[in-house]
Structures are given as C-alpha cells and as structure tokens.
Design a protein that fits this description.
By secondary structure, this protein is of the alpha+beta class. It has two domains: about 230 residues, Hypothetical protein, domain 2 (Endonuclease III, domain 1), CATH 1.10.340.30; about 120 residues, Nucleoside Triphosphate Pyrophosphohydrolase, CATH 3.90.79. The chain has 15 helices and seven strands. Strands 1, 2, 3, 4, 5, 6 and 7 form a seven-stranded mixed β-sheet that branches. A hairpin with a 2-residue loop joins strand 5 and strand 6. The protein is elongated. The chain starts with 12 loop residues before the first helix and ends with a helix. Bound molecules: iron/sulfur cluster (SF4). The site of iron/sulfur cluster has 14 residues, from helix 9 and helix 12.
C-alpha cells in the first residue's frame, strides 16, 4: 500500500509495520468467520453486475449503492433490530433513488417517523434529488461526499460495499476492534491526530482484495463478538492477533467516552379539538422538529403557564374544557422530555382565523398528518 502523501502520516514506521503484519494475519480468518456468522440483513441482499438480485449466500457480491446508502444513514444512532422494519418499509415505498427524489417531504418524513434525528431523512431526500440531477452518478468517495448528508464513513461504506473499491470506513465497531487488536488506549477525538491515525489504519485494512467484505466483516465482528462490554473472545476468530486479549485488557480498551448528561425537561402538549377537528402547528425553523406538524407544545419555563401562552398564540379560541389525559417520557438528542398531554375542547369565535403555521385536521387523518414519533405518542391514548 502507498502511504498518502497529502498530510504527514501520524503512524510511526515501527507501528505501521506492526499494523501491516497484524492485519495480514487477521484478514483470512475474519473472512472465513464472516461467511459463517454474517447476519442476513435486508440491505445485504446482493445484486449482480446487471443490478439483478442474487442469492443471499453470496455475501461477496456487490450491493445496491442505494440500499447501502439508506441503511447506513438509518443505522446512525439506531440499533439494527429497530432499523430492519423501517428499511423494508422504506424500500417498498421508495424502491429507487428516482422514487425517493419524486416523493414529497411529507411522505419522506412519514416513512421516517419513529427513527428520530429527522435531518437524516431530509438529507436523504435532498441527496436523492441532487443525484437525479447529475449527468453522471457518483462512484468515488470524493463524488459521494458531494451528496448532501454523506460523510467519509458513509461514502467509504457505499464505495467499498457497492463498487468493490478500496475505501476505508471508521465507525464505533471498527474503532473498538482496532483499539483492541493493536492495544490503542485512545479514542479518535474530533479533528485530532488520533483520528487521523484511526483513519490511516482503516485505509490500511481496506487495502486488499474484496475490501467491501473486509470492511463489513470488521463491523460485524464489533457488533456480534468484540462488543463494548464483555467481548466474547472465546468465539473470536482473531485471538492470536489481539493485543488486548494477550494483555487481559479487553474490557479496558478502548477507553470509555464520558457520557453526555441527559437533561430532563417538563413539557405540556395539547390535543385541542373543535367540531371533530384537531389543531396542529408547524414547528418553527431552528426549533427541535423544525417543519413538522406538532400539537401545541410548551416546554421548560413555558410549560406551567401553557394556558396563557396558548391563548396568546390563538386569540380566537376559547377553552371550554381541559383535562389531563396522560404523561409519557420521550428522548430527543441529550434531552428527556416528560410530556403531559391535555385534552381540550375549544370553540372558535366568529372572527377566528388560524394563525400562521397552524391548521386543523379531521381526526381520521392523523396517520397522514403526524410525521414524527413525538406527535404520534401525544395522539395515541394509552
Ligand atoms: S480477542 Fe476479544 S478483544 Fe480481541 S478482537 Fe477478538 S473479541 Fe475483540
């Protein structure tokens, strides 16, 4: 492998030689293990060079770049088991990049509802629109990185898995396996020399035949065997190459990232009904869930005085009945909202006009209108 000359490599010559040697020992046993242990996940369905589906057993065949792209975006911050039904539903609704590009944002957000981090869905949608506008579809890492929402990891996954090119990937699973195999007691912090070092290792790892299979096998080992806590070293295909196992440090490496503090926030949500229709507001730009239809929601300092704020926002409405319905918890990013839902019966006075961004929907249309998990929890009576 040629070392990249664009920036000074942080890998010392001695460490580089060690990594070359260890990776050379690991590739074959890891490939053999992967052929037996790989999970049959829907985004791993192989295709042949004409784009036709192939047998599941042929894990070394190339994949659909669109399927790899969608699955990698869904898998960010989300467990595999949770992603599977969303992925299947997504591919049934939007089987191609063209179908996704043609869909409305509302349809896209509805298909994503429940996965959270909605910027991912919007970026996928924008990415598909950009893709269909290009004369030539992206192939290389650099070309994929020009598509909205695609960073070096996703680009590396698509390019290696779908096109069989030698491109590196670096996710939490890969970092953990590298740290343990090579005895690295540091994490790849943002923009640091340590991060460059891990990426250099990832390039070195993928610099071999069938890099897509190698990359995926490494991630699978991290997901199934070399797990964050209590790795199952007795089942591991690489025990003789593992520095952590030899030093009894498999539970110490890599060092644990300090956990972000979870902030608990009180919130009040209103199901305000008038004449069989329910009030929703479009979330303001810059707020969380921006652009989504949401029931009137008051959080933090606003929550205790929700009545006054609701009346200010909707001066033509009069509350004739209000009762608390249920309370639930909902986590978004580093915040845990404790949401109390109030059911309101309201009447509209003669001069009532919906305020900008608010509208009323008939109750049977809830499934169409509510495009995020929080709104659906507010809507669903326990
Ligand atoms: S031997 Fe254990 S610690 Fe080392 S790579 Fe395998 S599972 Fe991970």
């Amino acid at each position: 492998m040629q070392k990249r000359s664009t920036s000074p490599s942080p890998i010392s010559t001695a460490f580089y030689s060690t990594a070359v040697q260890i990776f050379a020992q690991c590739r074959l046993p890891l490939r053999k293990w992967f052929k037996k242990a790989a999970r049959s996940l829907p985004w791993r369905e192989p295709i042949d060079t004409a784009g036709q589906k192939k047998k599941w057993s042929d894990l070394t065949a190339r994949r659909s770049p669109y399927a790899v792209w969608v699955s990698e975006i869904m898998l960010q911050q989300t467990q595999v088991a949770a992603v599977v039904p969303y992925f299947q539903n997504w591919m049934a609704r939007f089987p191609t990049v063209e179908a996704l590009a043609r869909a409305s944002e509302e349809e896209v957000l509805r298909a994503w509802a429940g996965l959270g981090y909605y910027a991912r869905a919007r970026n996928l949608h924008r990415g598909a629109q950009k893709m269909v506008s290009l004369e030539k579809r992206p192939v290389t890492v650099e070309e994929w990185e020009r598509i909205p929402g695609i960073g070096p990891y996703t680009a590396g996954a698509i390019v290696s898995l779908a096109f069989g090119m030698r491109a590196p990937i670096l996710d939490g699973n890969v970092v953990r396996v590298f740290s343990r195999l090579l005895g690295l007691d540091f994490l790849p912090g943002k923009g640091t020399a340590e991060k460059h070092l891990y990426w250099e290792l990832a390039r070195l790892w993928a610099d071999a035949a069938q890099p897509g299979e190698l990359n995926e096998a490494l991630m699978e080992l991290g997901a199934l065997v070399c797990t964050p806590v209590n790795p199952e070293c007795a089942r591991c295909p690489l025990p003789f190459s593992c520095s952590a196992l030899q030093g009894g440090r498999q539970n110490e490496l890599p060092p644990v990232k300090p956990r972000a503090r979870v902030e608990e926030v009180s919130a009040v949500a209103l199901r305000a009904v008038s004449g069989g229709k329910v009030l929703v507001e479009t979330r303001a730009p810059g707020s969380f869930l921006a652009g989504h239809a949401m029931f009137p929601l008051f959080h933090g300092a606003e929550a205790p005085s929700w009545r006054a704020t609701f009346q200010q926002r909707h001066p033509g409405l009069k509350i004739v009945e209000a009762r608390p319905a249920h309370t639930f918890r909902h986590a978004i990013m580093a915040k845990r909202y404790v949401v109390t839902v109030w059911e309101l019966t309201v009447v509209r006075n003669a001069a009532y006009e919906p305020t900008v961004g608010s509208h009323w929907f008939p109750e049977p249309e809830a499934d169409r209108v509510l495009t995020n998990a929080l709104a659906r929890k507010i809507w669903t009576r326990p």
